[in-house]
From TrEMBL:
This is Actin-like protein arp8. InterPro entries: Actin, ATPase_NBD. PANTHER family: ACTIN. Residues 63-75 have a biased composition (Basic and acidic residues). It comes from Imshaugia aleurites. It holds the Pfam family Actin. Residues 63-94, 145-172, 557-580 are annotated as: Disordered. SMART domains: ACTIN (SM00268). SUPFAM superfamilies: Actin-like ATPase domain. Belongs to the actin family.
């Protein structure tokens, strides 16, 4: 039996008892801790310890050595010829200076023939070599072999969606879009009449009835397919399903007959300037589709068919001003790994627009198909707090135009924007007939040809009155647009980006965007308390959790002059910016439940007031250089009407306000791409190029060093 023995006895038995012999426990030298006051390290503080910066320096050094070698060779040759070399600059320093000044490259690179510039959009992809004068435009769409086409999906529900009676039959045109639409549309019609009268324009009292009656009683005329000189070339799909391609992209995809056998479904991977999360089940499929569309465009439009040669090419990729970090890092991965470019760099849309048009200071307004962005650019930098991204564009005008026409008994009552030929038709009608010139409003007779694959062409005649102006008027009254589905699926597949150390959301924010969101819906404070009811029917948002140190950081920033959320405009005109603190600004910016949709003129003034930061001179500068680009602004009279509205809102600045257009020879839809191509040819951009080796080692972390803006 083991009796009770002390711990010491046990240790003694096992030979582990410590007997003190006054010797040190170890013979290793003991180092006293250094005094923390004198503590210093230059770890990661010098450029040569940071791989991307070191590579950059090495590259510069190599270039200079190569040049010096060339000069020496030329000098030696000249000496043997006993003559001074002509045109040789002996001063090396000059050359180094030029490099930093962003001088254009020389030789083949100067032409940009080894740089591909890519600007994707919700509807169109613009792509080309930096040496090209104009980009190629292809629809940003892919058709995949599917069980049903997109128009048969969702039970064949047409777009715009029509309401039905209880027994399933169709309602009268005046009722089928609901009371809300009807009353808003009628109010817009009445307001326009008043406005036209006050501008001394002739308004006939019964114009509307006249056109409605005409539309009601005009049947289409049938033209047999062989008598139609403009019949459409539909994409032919092999009859044998096994031979039918798995996918088709761009224009070819849009031209596949809706009823093709086998069926194809169209996917638009970018919607509203975001990833399209509502149409995809897996994010991998979504990423694959984007890569495939770009890959096919490079092969077919740029004629660069061998993918393994693309490593010799650089790629300039244009991203939104208010981008999401996941989008940029995923795009970088795609360009490096899937498409295999040798080097990649990014540029923001607004900055590219100013580069393309040759402006140094501007408030850039880009009206696209599904998103509209506003941003003030000053001396080569986007002003972060002036960035605004609104979720509407030309596609909303098309849809609203169709709804208004249907309300006024459009003879082609079956139109369904989910069908490919109807979508193309509606786009054509909008581009041809919509206008923002009040002077053009009168009852007008138009016609169009409906061309459906395998059917005879139908010629429709119809009349329009104020619909042609009221649909684009939606830019100033966006509640007329159908905004109900725009947040569908948001964050279903891809979460927002979070800071690795602090845990809070770290996607870029802007005080102007927060002001826009606050206008639409009340502010949610950081502790999750709402300051009121939502104003536009959105559900009450969930509180946003921010890490405590993040809150501290934002509160600190509130003390700096840069935080001007809610500051009044420099003049006495009303500024539509609500009061809010910077903490609230961040909280509002990261909200996903509110759709940023406000009138375009208000958005521009909000952006300028946040970009100019109370500086009256800057406000004038921005107001006198509002530059409008993008396809959505191509409606005739757009520039004039925007100028008038801004002047009405800011009479104090009326004589300064000028809407600038890109230089005459430049297509406003291609200006951003053009800016990307200019950027791709500049030597100064060398600092933004991300090479393969550094990407392999550091991945997306490189973006901190490589973006021209604060990543
Ligand atoms: N002449 C025109 N008149 C009216 N609208 C036009 C005209 N030309 C193009 N559009 C419209 O411009 C829009 C496409 O513009 P753009 O190519 O700039 O958009 P995107 O870059 O694809 O989209 P986003 O900027 O939303 O991502 C479409 O809605 C199209 O109907």
């Amino acid at each position: 039996m083991v009796g009770k023995r002390s711990g010491k006895a046990l240790l003694r038995e096992e030979g582990l008892e410590r007997t003190d012999n006054n010797m040190d426990l170890t013979t290793w030298p003991q180092i006293n801790p250094i005094n923390q006051k004198n503590y210093y390290t230059d770890f990661l503080k010098r450029d040569d310890q940071i791989l991307p910066l070191r590579l950059l320096q090495e590259e510069r050094r190599n270039r200079m050595t190569a040049k010096a070698r060339d000069r020496d060779r030329e000098l030696a040759q000249a000496n043997t010829n006993e003559a001074t070399p002509s045109g040789v600059d002996l001063d090396m320093d000059d050359d180094a200076g030029m490099e930093d000044a962003g001088e254009p490259l020389t030789g083949q690179d100067a032409l940009g023939s080894k740089v591909i510039v890519i600007h994707p959009g919700s509807q169109n992809l613009r792509i080309g070599l930096a040496s090209d004068a104009l980009p190629k435009t292809v629809p940003m769409v892919i058709a995949r072999k599917w069980s049903m086409s997109e128009s048969e999906d969702d039970g064949g529900e047409p777009s715009p969606k029509r309401r039905r009676t209880d027994d399933g039959s169709q309602m009268e045109p005046e009722e089928m879009f609901g009371e809300e639409f009807a009353s808003q549309y009628n109010r817009m019609c009445a307001d326009l009449k008043i406005h036209m009268r006050s501008n001394k324009r002739r308004v006939l009292p019964n114009s509307k009835e006249l056109i409605v009656n005409y539309n009601k009683r005009t049947p289409p005329e049938t033209i047999s397919e062989h008598n139609d000189p403009f019949r459409v070339d539909w994409t032919e799909i092999p009859a044998n399903p096994k031979e039918a391609p798995g996918f088709l992209t761009g224009k070819e995809a849009l031209r596949i007959p809706d009823k093709s056998i086998p069926r194809y479904k169209l996917f638009w991977p970018l919607r509203y300037g975001w990833y399209n999360e509502s149409e995809y089940r897996e994010k991998k499929d979504l990423y694959d589709d984007i890569a495939t569309i770009i890959e096919e465009a490079i092969k077919t439009q740029l004629n660069l068919r061998r993918k393994k040669d693309w490593v010799q090419y650089g790629c300039v990729f244009v991203v939104p001003d208010l981008y999401e970090r996941h989008y940029v890092s995923q795009t970088l991965e795609m360009l490096m790994r899937d498409l295999g470019f040798g080097k990649v760099c990014f540029i923001q849309e607004s900055l590219a627009a100013t580069c393309g048009a040759g402006y140094t200071t501007a408030c850039v307004v880009d009206v696209g198909a599904q998103k509209t962005s506003v941003c003030c650019v000053e001396e080569g930098m986007c002003i972060e707090n002036s960035r605004i991204n609104l979720k509407y564009g030309g596609a909303d005008v098309t849809e609203t135009f169709v709804r208004m026409m249907l309300y006024d008994h459009f003879p082609y009552a079956d139109i369904d924007l989910k069908r490919r030929y109807d979508f193309l038709l509606a786009e054509e009608l909008k581009s041809k007939f919509c206008t923002m010139n009040e002077g053009e409003i009168s009852p007008q007779l138009f016609d169009f040809h409906l061309r459906v694959s395998g059917q005879d062409t139908r010629k429709y005649t119809f009349k329009t009155y104020d619909e042609v102006l009221l649909a684009p008027q939606g830019y100033y009254q966006p509640t007329i647009f159908d905004n109900s589905q725009k947040l569908k699926g948001r964050r279903n597949l891809i979460d927002r980006s979070y800071d690795l150390y602090e845990g809070g959301p770290n996607d870029p924010v802007s005080s102007a965007q927060s002001a826009v969101i606050s206008l639409i819906s009340p502010i949610v404070s950081v502790n999750g308390q709402t300051n009121g009811e939502t104003s536009n029917g959105h559900t009450a948002p969930a509180p946003i959790k921010l890490a405590p140190n993040m809150i501290q950081k934002i509160n600190d920033s509130e003390r700096t002059p840069a935080s001007t959320v809610g500051s009044p405009a420099p003049d006495d005109d009303d500024t539509p910016v609500p009061t809010s603190t910077a903490t609230e600004a961040l909280a509002t910016s990261v909200r996903d439940d509110v759709l940023p949709v406000i009138a375009l003129d208000t958005a521009i003034l909000t952006s300028i007031s946040h970009g100019a930061r109370l500086d009256e001179r800057k406000t004038r500068d921005f107001l006198s250089s509002v530059m409008v680009v993008g396809g959505g602004a191509q409606i005739s009279g757009f520039y004039m009407s925007l100028e008038e509205r801004l002047k009405d809102l800011r009479p104090g600045f009326a004589k300064d306000i000028v809407i600038g257009t890109p230089p005459r020879e430049l297509d406003p839809q291609g200006v951003i791409w053009k800016g990307g191509s200019v950027f791709g040819k500049l030597r100064g951009t060398n600092d933004s190029w991300i090479g393969k080796m550094e990407y392999d080692r550091l991945g997306a972390r490189l973006l901190v060093y490589k973006c021209m803006w604060a990543w």
